[in-house]
Amino acid sequence: MDFKTSLCNALERATGIPFDQFEEMIETPPNPEIGDLALPCFKLAKSLRKAPPVIAQELFEKLGDIDGFSRIEPVGGYLNFFTDRSRFAKTVVSRVLNEKDGYASSTYGAGKNVCVEYSSINIAKPFGIHHITTTVLGNSLKRIYDHLGFKTVSINHLGDWGTQFGKMIVAYNRWGDREKIENGDSMRELVALYVKFHEEAELDPSLNDEARAAFHRIEQHTPADWKLFQWFKEVTLRDVARVYDLLGIEFDSYNGESFYEDKMPAVIEELKDKGISKIDNGMTIVDLSEYDMPPCIILKSDGSTIYATRDIAAAKYRKDSYDFYKSLYVVAYQQNLHFSQVFKVLELMGYDWAKDCVHVNFGMISMEDATFSTRKGNAIYLEDVLNTAIEKTLAIIKEKSPNLENKEIVARQVGVGALVFSVLYNNRIKDYTFSWDKSLNFDGETGPYAQYTYARSCSVLRKAREAGFDVDFDIDRLDYSVLTDEASGSLLRAIDALPETVRQAAEKYEPYLISRRVIEICSCFNRFYYDNRIMENDAKVRNARLALTEAARTAIRVGLYLIGLEAPERM
Ligand code: ARG
């Protein structure tokens, strides 16, 4: 039984006011000592034409007993409701134990498709630390939407088009070493070629003309150049796959900017036909002055397309291919204007689905660790940061748990998790400075703390099993009155809040809400663990506490999964 439903039903019966209205009005008091649920009666004052305290008192007398509640209290303008603690424990524990990894999932999004574009790296450029937020935020949103029953399409909109690829061809043909690129750090080798091109072009500007010509040959799909261009992509993607593997991230589509090359003429035609674009100084633009924005350039004066043109084509392609309910773009706030322009142009084209395109923007990340920013020029490679996190974690594990098996695997799960968690612990728009000490702390509000708590819950159940106790709980026969103490109650409430948190996270595109809920469940579990002896001799007490441990363990695992972390069983 759902307590809120039971309460709203009773309120509807007592007042004749529809269920839905009560569902909106009911609040969760900040402190359970006030009540588990509350009705702020001032919200009824207008329609009932009575003072809130009077409404509270009258409703209290009319309601009588409500199924699932042990006490009702009128306090001033509020009516406070206390749930029956054992009934509450039974509801929460049985739901989690039944649903397992499906806990907090729903069919809310059934039949709806959501495009989630994230990471969107650039070919032959560093996959840097600045790309971590889009990568992990997008991955988390994808998992959250999947969990809510939507069908997601994850898209890596590669930056694989533009004159820089002409420069790459020129640089490669002059100074490139195929062996080195194939077998070494491909991305670094390509970036080095790009840097060299710019140094040399300073001395010999004619290289720039060569580069333009080379890019033109790519546009014409001239075999030798086209092949090289594809090869740059291939080796870059092979390189970045290592990072995606570490993070446990996959994409359904790698359709990047070049994919839209042959889809743009139709868009340009359409803009002209609908009278939306105009020629200005030889450029084709969409005037957006009416909306307080600079014009959106569609074609430069030399007739070449730009970034925005490709995004307009991409948005249309995604609508046509996936008929999305929403299309998310997880991209830094520096591109706010760009997306406002693109979405506005789509709207002007008459596409009402332009309103379903969402720029999920986020703030900047910087590193506290100075050794990183100076070591290799100004690009900090994400792979280096991840590997450093793993190394540092391995050192901590060797010290803390010298007997642990598979130390390397756990160090990867925890090191990578520490980084991911720290990025997803604050609201996304905030600029953020990464600190090793804070992120790798096993006691703070961190990934390692959550994973450590998870491992502790696993160890409790493992020991119970090893002691020969039954841990396949018979949900209907547990004594839930064992779980009515304060510590158990807080833990149950934290677990119970997860499904609503997941919905909120999806609605606001804010995975950090889940990270915080996970930390709350963990700290409640740790309090429960210290306050109560789980391995009691009394089987009734022991079983109920073990079942709650299993529920907490499941909720933590689900929460961690949704933000992109693995959950090691031993640490
Ligand atoms: N590749 C771009 C960058 O690294 C991000 C692409 C964002 N997505 C888009 N559809 N424009 O800055």
CATH homologous superfamily of one domain, by name? Isoleucyl-tRNA Synthetase, Domain 1
The computed structural class is: alpha/beta
**Portion in beta strands:** 5-15%
| CATH-defined topology of one domain | Isoleucyl-tRNA Synthetase, Domain 1
Q: pLDDT below 50 for ≥5 consecutive residues: which ranges? A: none
- Which molecules other than protein and nucleic acid are bound? arginine
Give the beta-strand count.
Answer: 12
Give the radius of gyration.
29 Å
Major beta sheet summary: 4 strands, parallel
Looking at the overall shape, the CATH architecture of one domain is Orthogonal Bundle
Please report the distance between the alpha carbons of the first and last residues.
Answer: 37 Å
Mean pLDDT: 95
Helical fraction equals: 55-70%
Q: Figure out the total of helices.
A: 22
Which strand order do you get reading across the main beta sheet? 5-4-9-10
What's the overall geometry? flat
CATH class of one domain: Mainly Alpha
Can you give me a brief rundown of this structure?
The chain is α/β, with parallel strands linked by helices and 571 residues long.
Any descriptors?
alpha/beta; Isoleucyl-tRNA Synthetase, Domain 1; four-stranded parallel sheet; 12 strands; flat; binds arginine
